């Protein structure tokens, strides 16, 4: 007989180790895409939500979750839900700090439409200067834009407000 | 070659959703054709990112449509023949030069932007959920296309000429965006989908503001092409599908 609470706790501990393949410093909890974990019989049901409609990392993340749980001897089924829609507000504070330390400017504002179209000047994650400019709204992945710091002249990625 | 095409025997909602998904997938495919050919690295990434957004939106809609019509997302994308596609003619036209690609992206995104915003309040929870993601992505697409069109129109004599030519050539394909199928009326009345006619003013405002800054002339509304929403397509869609569907047609059921 499986104890549902301890099975869920074990699963949560495993899920804490699953990271975003494109931003490996962030766990799926940091990102805020892990929506629900519940136990049904001997199976753990994990619900995740995509950041962007076309995020190519989702399939990989699903596979990584399954693999990590299987390695811990836990049977799982992974579901994807779209509602409520993920926004950058769901990034945890720990996640924001990890992003900055990794060299990616975290989103500053809430994921509102105004923030989306406001002038965004994220602080440079390398030197901290606020004197930065946008190079392209489309960066190396769907969730990032490319900026440049006018103070230290280094280009950097910024997580888009969404 | 043992693959057979599927036939869709769907409800009004299924056909409507296929129109939305097909618009997104076909335009996403067209934009992906720029990969390796874009004028600058940043633009290469931008077009690929926009293509990815559109293909992601298409996948979400096909996924939902499939639960209503009894198909998988892949069957809907890879096993329908030309007459079963419901995309607007605008999105299937070839990319042309960069000006055509950008002008088309603006004309389409200026429509998709208010469309998805309106869809966030759909009485259909799945449509509202898909729209909540799509509307933010589409807002970026409008802005990107508008910024480029302004640079092209207000750039050199050559870029201005090409941008105006692109606009003139594409204009007759914009009317179809605002048409509805007969079966859409009940969906509009029930609050499942927005009436595209109600999006016209927003589209006009976005397009006019951009063209004015771009020093481009808005073409006159004359004869408007249509047919895509009824499955009557230009020759270009068949060629696009031949490439896009090749793998599933040649290796039926292949999965990653």
Task: Provide a quick synopsis of the model.
The complex is a heterodimer of chains A (162) and B (256). Chain A is α/β, with parallel strands linked by helices and 162 residues long.
Describe the protein in words.
The complex is a heterodimer of chains A (162) and B (256). By secondary structure, chain A is an alpha/beta fold. Helix content of chain A is 28%, strand content 23%. Chain A is built from 5 helices and 7 strands; from the N terminus they run H-H-E-E-H-E-H-E-H-E-E-E. Chain A has helices spanning 4-15, 28-31, 57-71, 93-102, 113-117; strands spanning 34-40, 43-48, 75-80, 104-105, 132-136, 144-149, 155-159. In chain A, the strands form 2 sheets. Chain A has a 4-stranded mixed beta sheet with strand order 4-7-6-5. In chain A, strands 1-2-3 form a 3-stranded mixed beta sheet. In chain A, helix 3 (57-71) links the parallel strand 2 and strand 3. The longest helix of chain A is centred in the middle third of the chain and has 15 residues, at 57-71. Chain A starts with a helix and ends with a strand. The model of chain A has no long low-confidence stretch (mean pLDDT 88). Chain B is mainly alpha-helical and 256 residues long. Chain B has 11 helices and no strands. Chain B has helices at 12-32, 41-69, 73-78, 89-92, 98-119, 125-153, 157-170, 184-189, 200-213, 235-244, 246-250. Chain B is globular. The two termini of chain B are 19 Å apart. The chains are: A alpha/beta (162), B mainly alpha (256). The A-B interface holds A 50, 52-56, 81-86, 111, 113, 116-117, 135-140, 142, 146, 162 and B 42-43, 45-46, 48-50, 52-57, 59-60, 125-126, 128-130, 132-134, 136-137, 139-140, 143-144.
């Amino acid at each position: 007989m499986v104890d549902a609470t301890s099975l869920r706790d074990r699963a949560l501990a495993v899920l804490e180790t699953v990271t975003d393949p494109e931003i490996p410093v962030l766990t799926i909890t940091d990102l805020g895409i892990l929506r629900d974990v519940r136990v049904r019989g001997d199976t753990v049901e994990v619900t995740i939500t995509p950041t962007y409609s076309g995020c190519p990392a989702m399939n990989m993340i699903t596979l990584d979750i399954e693999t990590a749980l299987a390695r811990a001897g836990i049977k799982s089924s992974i579901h994807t839900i779209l509602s409520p829609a993920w926004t950058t507000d769901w990034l945890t504070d720990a996640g924001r700090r990890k992003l900055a330390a990794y060299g990616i400017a975290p989103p500053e504002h809430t994921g509102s439409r105004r923030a989306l179209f406001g002038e965004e000047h994220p602080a440079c994650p390398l030197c901290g200067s606020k004197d930065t400019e946008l190079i392209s709204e489309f960066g190396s992945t769907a969730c990032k834009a490319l900026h440049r710091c006018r103070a230290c002249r280094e280009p950097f990625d910024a997580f888009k407000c969404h | 070659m043992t693959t057979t095409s599927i036939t869709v025997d769907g409800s009004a909602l299924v056909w409507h959703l296929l129109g939305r998904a097909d618009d997104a997938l076909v335009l996403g495919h067209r934009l992906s054709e720029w990969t390796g050919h874009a004028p600058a690295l940043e633009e290469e990434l931008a077009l690929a990112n926009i293509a990815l957004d559109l293909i992601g939106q298409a996948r979400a809609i096909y996924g939902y449509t499939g639960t209503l019509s009894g198909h998988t997302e892949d069957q809907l994308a890879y096993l329908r023949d030309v007459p079963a596609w419901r995309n607007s003619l605008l999105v299937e036209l070839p990319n042309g030069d960069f000006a055509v690609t950008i002008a088309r992206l603006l004309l389409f995104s200026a429509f998709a932007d208010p469309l998805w915003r309106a869809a966030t309040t759909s009485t259909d929870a799945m449509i509202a959920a898909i729209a909540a993601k799509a509307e933010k992505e589409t807002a970026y697409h409008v802005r990107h296309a508008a910024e480029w069109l302004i640079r092209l129109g207000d750039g050199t004599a050559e870029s201005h000429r090409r941008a105006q030519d692109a606009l003139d050539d594409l204009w007759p394909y914009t009317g179809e965006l605002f048409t509805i199928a007969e079966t859409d009326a009940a969906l509009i009345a029930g609050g499942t989908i927005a009436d595209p006619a109600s999006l016209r003013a927003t589209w006009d405002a976005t397009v006019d503001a951009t063209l004015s800054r771009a020093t481009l002339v808005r073409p006159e509304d004359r004869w408007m092409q249509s047919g895509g929403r009824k499955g009557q397509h230009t020759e270009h869609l068949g060629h696009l599908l031949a490439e896009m569907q090749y793998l599933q047609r040649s290796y039926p059921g292949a999965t990653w």
